[in-house]
Amino acid sequence: FAQWRRVSLGQRSEYLLALATALLANQEAFAQMIAREIGKPITQARGEVSKCVGLCQWYAEHGPAMLAPEPTQIDKARIEYRPLGPILAVMPWNFPLWQVLRGAVPALLAGNTYVLKHAPNVMGSAYLLLELFKQAGLPEGVFEVINVAPEGVTRAIQDPRIAAVTLTGSVRAGMAIGAQAGAALKKCVLELGGSDPFIVLADADLDAAVKAAVIGRYQNTGQVCAAAKRLIVEASIVEEFTRRFVEATRQLKVGNPLEDDTYIGPMARYDLRDELDGQVQATLAEGAPLLLGGHKLEGAGNFYAPTVFADVTPAMTAFRQELFGPVAAIISARDADHAVELANDSEFGLASTIYTADLTL
């Protein structure tokens, strides 16, 4: 960090462009690594790498202006953006490249260094990324990987060399990391999941809404923090929306993630599939009609059948909890106001979607 903070902003931008070049040159190798480690369908894995290439290029072009000093109304005073220091990042497995770089790239451009503690099941991706940083010519130590158990994370947070910490993960992990960062008086950024509403009002283009809802719910086998998890549809069209959504979901190919036409692969770990199935069975017991799926698929791999529930209510598990897998919950709303009320009835935030022809609502 002592050396990197003195590297010019222009030179840091050049390093980001070199990283983009290294990522692009190794796109297929990285996509194969992601698909084999977590079961992400290969076409989606390639898309993740491409998105990261664009991320590096965008910050290289636009980042320096965002970090430029800003004048104030006070004579001879200005706002400057200065680096904090080494940042510890505890990252999840579901986007093993994007989750890392979306935080690391702007932080590195700003003059910080990055210490990645990745999820245990994607350490191949972590070390491949470290190798690509070396290929791009970044100085040693600017981006580092540590492979430690939770107690090792605690020691890292307590280490005086670590200036800040960030976590994307579960609420339980966030509570622990947040408490440790607070005790050490270190800046902390937490992202702890979502149960994101996808609202469809009566005047919406149903074809477009259904297509987006299917992609939004089942991308990466439904293992996305900002996925469309609660599909809140106005009552006058909920029956037609549901019919089309179920039919579109039936068409999704479930299978080998290394085949180009697979849309839904295996879930990342068997325990996550078991947890999801428990939530599905609880929702069934609570009275939600099951329109599709609702069970593990037999045979090798952590496959779960694409699942659709109708008439889900706020009292049900599928509404109250985050379902991190290929399960959709369709919820009927009386009108637009009721749809917003249902959307807000959650402890989770993160993202939301509205399909309507009236943007003045």
The count of helical stretches stands at 12
Strand and helix order: HHHEEEHEHEHEHEEHEHHEEHEHE
Largest sheet: 6 strands, mixed
**Runs with pLDDT <50, length 5+?**
none
Class of secondary structure makeup:
alpha/beta
- Binned strand content: 15-25%
Strand order of the largest sheet: 10-11-12-9-8-13
Computed CA radius of gyration, to the nearest angstrom: 22 Å
Helix content: 40-55%
Number of strands: 13
Shape: globular
**Whole-Å distance between the termini?**
49 Å
Give the overall pLDDT as a whole number.
97
Structure description:
The chain is an alpha/beta fold and 361 residues long. 44% of the residues lie in helices and 16% in strands. The chain has 12 helices and 13 strands. It has helices at residues 9-25, 27-38, 42-66, 98-109, 123-135, 150-158, 171-183, 206-218, 235-250, 270-285, 317-320, 336-344, and strands at residues 70-71, 78-79, 86-90, 113-117, 143-146, 164-168, 187-191, 196-200, 228-234, 290-292, 307-309, 327-333, 353-355. The protein has a 6-stranded mixed β-sheet with strand order 10-11-12-9-8-13. Helix 2 (27-38) packs across helix 3.
